[in-house]
Amino acid sequence: MTTLTATAPTRTDGLRQTLLLAQWQLRRQSQYLPLMVVVQVFMAVATVVGYGLLVGDPDPVTALFLATGAPTITLITVGLVMVPQMVGQARIEGSLDWMRTLPVPRVAFLLSDLLVWTLIALPGMALGVLAGVLRFDVDLSIAPWFLPATLLVSLTAAAVGYAMATVLPPQLAMLLTQALVFIVLLFSPVSYPAERMPAWLQTAHEWLPIEPMAQLVRAGLAQETFAMPARSLVVLVTWAVVALAGAAVALRRRA
């Protein structure tokens, strides 16, 4: 007599499911990927050229702020703007609910989505670095930990955007992304030092993830000029953990 015993899923199975889901997501969005890359390129180049027109011939430190700010803006806008818009649209049309019926853990589904959006953000970031160097003629001193730092920034931005899109009503989340574009471009210390902002806004950014993201990318691209404060790294990691937890809880509740 033969008996069948169910085996619990292993970590290898979970990793394989996550990678397969990520591959499926990339294929599902393949028709939009070229447009996403074009939008990122436009965002990076427009940021560099636009700020260059505003400041004219900047001093070396200002030039470094502008050159390192362009790739940071690209990473942040993909996570905080594009991710909520796409996830919100998927919720409205019902495709997100259908995808959650697949026999895979919700955590694997979440991680695969974040992996896809993290990878999508990297080409625009690289082109932003190139555009900044060419426009402002700066010499970068890239830190050895720049690549994992970039992945952390991209993952955090995507996690916050994903959590926002799953916790808030879709229409509200998509409207909020429109405000975030102006906040990131104009009212965040990404392409200029925080000292130029009012004191209350400086205090707010000490607890928000945008300034730590900019500091990490800036220090990774120009380590001889800028440093990453330990407090900012803690704030950034905390936002990443809280956003991942919030998105995971929201996905489980919306079974």
TrEMBL record:
Source organism, top-level taxon: Bacteria
Subcellular location, principal: membrane
Residues of the ABC-2 type transporter transmembrane domain: 18-220
Record's keyword terms, sorted: Membrane, Transmembrane, Transmembrane helix
InterPro entries: ABC2_TM, Nod_factor_ABC_transporter
Transmembrane intervals: 32-55, 61-87, 108-133, 145-165, 172-192, 233-251
Membrane topology, record value: Multi-pass membrane protein
Compartments it resides in: Membrane
Pfam families per the UniProt record, alphabetical: ABC2_membrane
Name of the protein in its database record: ABC transporter permease
Organism: Cellulomonas dongxiuzhuiae
Source organism phylogeny: Bacteria, Bacillati, Actinomycetota, Actinomycetes, Micrococcales
